[in-house]
Amino acid sequence: MQNLLDPAILFFIFGVLAGFVRSNLEIPPAISRFLSLYLLMALGLKGGFALAQSGLTYEVAASLGAAILLALIVPALGYWTLKRFLSGFDAAAIAATYGSVSAVTFVTAVQFLENQGVEYGGHMAAAMALMESPAIILAVILANTLRQNKSVPIGKILHESFTDGAQLLLLGAMVVGLLTGEAGQAAMQPFSGDLFKGMLAFFLLDMGLMTARNLPQLKGISPGLIGYAVLGPLLHAAIALALALLLNLSPGNATLLMVLAASASYIAVPAVLRYAVPEANPCLYFGLSLGLTFPFNLIVGIPLYSRVAAYFLG
Predict the structure, then answer these.
(1) How many domains does the chain have?
(2) How far apart are CA 222 and CA 248, in angstroms?
(3) Predicted local confidence at residue 197, as pLDDT
(4) Domain of residue 235, residue span
(5) Domain holding 198: CATH number?
(6) How much is the pTM?
(7) For residue 107, which of 39, 40, 129, 242 sits 20 to 30 Å off, Cα-Cα?
């Protein structure tokens, strides 16, 4: 309930309601793109500043290793499950969407932990970047094995995955924060600190409007897929929790690892899949990730993962 009273979450809910009543309220695409880039840049700076203070520790190495392992386990498990009742292309596309991550869900989780006074490592932003591409690559490999005549060049997909502008901005901002340390943090505080909460609320308003617009795409989708959009993230979060327990991560880092495992991409991965796996139905992988999994994680998932991590690792 406390999470629902957060201004950013309330703006998301308000955006959903405005979309349902078919209001003409909308955020221009250019502004929405700016807000997305701002959040990634601010998050990268925060992560870099934190890394400059902590350095390379066991917790850092263990968290990044767990993130890479999850980026392989989650899409493989999703494909193995979904191919039983979907075409191979649709199964690969949905598995890639859920095997990758949602930057906005992660940013919201970071803000949630800060509001709760829970410490976390800035290196978790790097974990998010590492989990972006493996699922896309796996989906392309699976799609190529299903085709009989035409294959999408892996090299082209690899280039697009690793040179994506948003991901490069996140990593570049982390490097800047790492190099400038405390002096850079003090200089950038008005940008990466004071403005962050308001910008996040504005962006989540836009996400609420977009969620309402995409919910009609879910009409006619089987109950099994709807169940996967909610139960899948819970299972993925449980796997992340098991890794966090095995590696003895802090509650804050465990929470963010669970959030990353439970989230689903609705921007970067769908954009690549439209080109790489055109045989897949975008209404399935885009509608499920944005229409169901994103709001579920935002409203229910984040506080749940935080509470569970605190119970087992606190």
Answers:
(1) 1
(2) 39
(3) 85
(4) 3-313
(5) 1.20.1530.20
(6) 0.85
(7) 242
Place of tokens 């850092």: 60
For residue 11, the tally of other CB atoms under 10 A from its CB is: 20
Distances (CA, A) of 195 to 110, 118, 198, 256: 15, 20, 6, 22
| CA 177 – CA 75 distance, rounded (Å) | 31
Mean pLDDT by 10 residues, the chain (314 residues): 72 91 90 87 85 83 93 94 90 92 90 92 85 81 74 65 71 89 91 87 88 80 90 97 96 97 85 79 86 93 96 91
CA distance 123 to 283: 34
Q: How far apart are CA 106 and CA 266, in angstroms?
A: 13
Question: Looking at residue 37, what is its pLDDT?
Answer: 86
Residue 124 identity:
M
